[in-house]
Amino acid sequence: MCAQLKKDVKDFVRDLVSKDTTTLKIENIDFHNQIDIKSFIENELVNVSILSDSLYVVDKKVILENCRFEGGLWLEHFWFKKGVFVSTSALPRNNAFDGEQSFFEFHDSVIDGKMNIQIENSENVIDLKIVNCKLNDGLEINQQGGSFTLLDSYVLLQGKESVGYNSDGTPSEDAKQRTVDLWILNSGRSFNFSNNVFNFEFDLDSRAPIQFVGYIEANSKFVILDNNKLTSNVSSDSISNQVGLHIEVGGQTSSFNFMKNDFEIAVNLNLGFSLNQLKFYSNKLRSLRFSPFKIPSEDNFILWSDIAESNLGLLLLDVGFYDGRTTEQINDFVSYRQLIKFYKSLYDAYKTNGDIQSVNAAYIKIKDLETNELKIKYTKNPNLNLGFMIQINRILKFYTSYGTNPAKSLVISVYIIFGFACFYFFFPSDWDVTSKSKLIGNFKDFIQKNEKGYIKPFFALLIGFIVSLINAITLSLNAFTTLGFGNIPTKGIARYVCVFQGFLGWFLLSLFTVALINQVSF
Description:
The structure is a single chain. It is built from eleven helices and 33 strands. The protein is α/β, with parallel strands linked by helices. It folds into three domains: 5-14 and 23-165 and 175-294; 312-403, no CATH class; 406-520, no CATH class. The strands form three sheets. The chain has a 21-stranded mixed beta sheet that branches. The chain has a nine-stranded parallel beta sheet with strand order 7-10-13-16-20-23-27-29-31. Strands 1-3-6 form a three-stranded parallel beta sheet. The mean pLDDT is 82.
C-alpha cells in the first residue's frame, strides 16, 4: 500500500467547492486540522457557488479512497451534483491519528449521483451518519466496523433497464430487466435506520420485467428500523414484477426493533437465531415473508395485528414464498411443518406475554391450515371420518372461532333461538292454544270496521302478538337448552323441529362450555 500523504483539510475543502467540473479523486491522504467547514467557506473562500437555500454546489464527482480526516469529516449543506464515492480499506492503525475514532457524516445535503460508501477491513472504527439528506440516485453502503445511521432522509431509486444476454453471449431483448439496487451492509456497534422515505420509480412503458434487488444486512448488536415509509409505482402482487426488500440481521445482533414502518412492497425478514430482544409493532406492511427464525423466549413484543393483514408466509430455500394455501404447497410436507412450527412459535410467544387476543388469532390460523390440509386429504381419500372432521372444524370456526370466542357462540345462540321462535309462532302448542285463538280473533276485529273502531282492536292485536311471540320464544329457549318437556307441547312438523333444535342446542352449548373453559383457564 502506498504511504499516506499528509495535507491540511482546508486544501480538501478548496478542491471540493472549486468551480472545476472534472472528477475530484483523492487517494491515500491524511487530512490534518479540524475546522468549521461552513465558516471557512463563507469567510475565506471566494467564487463559491451557493444556491438560494444555502447549499454549496459541488459540480463534480467526488471520489475519496483511503483518506482519513483528523476528528472525522462532517459535510453539511452541500449539493453533490454527480455523486459521492468513499472507499476506506485496510488502513493500518499505526498510520492513523492517535487513538481517534473517525467518522463520515453528511447533513442537510443533496446527492444527485449515487452515494457509494465502502468501509472495509478498517482497523480504525469509522462511524457513518447520513442525516436529513436527499439522495436522488440510490444508495450503496458496505461498512465494517463502527455505527451506521440513516435518519430523516429521502431516497429516490429509479429503475434502470439493463441489457440482457442469451446463453451464447449475444444481446437479447427478452432477457432485459429493469432493476433498482439498494444495498446497505453494516457490521459494527449499532444500526439506526429511522424516519426515512424511499420511493422506487420504474418506467412503466417498458415491457422488460422488473426485478428489484433491495438488501439490508445489519450485523450490529442493536438494529433499529423505525418510522420509515417505502413506496413504489409498481405493485409487488404482480407475478411478473418481483418488487421487494430483503432485511437480514447477522449473528452479532441481539436486539432488533422494527416499528411504525409503512412499506408498500413485499418485505422479506431473516432474523436468524441469536436475538435476545425483538420489538415488532405498529407497522403497515403489504406483504411480509419471514425466513425461519427464533423468537426470543422472554423479551419479545410482536403484535399479531401487524402481521395479520399482510400476505404472511415463510421464505424458504429451494421453495421461495410459502404460505400453505395451495394444494401443491400442502403436499410439500416438510415446508408445511415448518410453517406450522412458525405459527406455533408465535403462539407460544404471545402466551408468554399474556397477549390472549394474539394467542387466539395465531391458534385460529393454525386451525385454518389444518382444515385446508384435511380438505386435500379428503379429495385423495374420501371417508366418513375425514368428512366429519372437516365439518366439525367448520362449525367450530363459525360458532366459537375454534374455541377462542365464547361470546360469539352466545350471540349466534340468540339468533338461533329467535329464528326457531319465529317458526314456532305460526304453530299452536298445548299450552298456547288460547293465545293463538285470541290472536286470530283480534286480527279479524282489526280488519273489520265495527263499533269498536280501530284503536282498541289494534292494541288488542298487538298485545296478543306479543304474548304469542313470548310463548314461541319460551318454547324455542326450552327446546334449545334441552330443559325437557316430558311431552313435546306441539304437534305436526313443529314437534320434529323441536327435537332437532334440542339436539342442536345440546351440541352448540357443549361447544360454548368448552370455549368458555378454554378462555377462563388461559
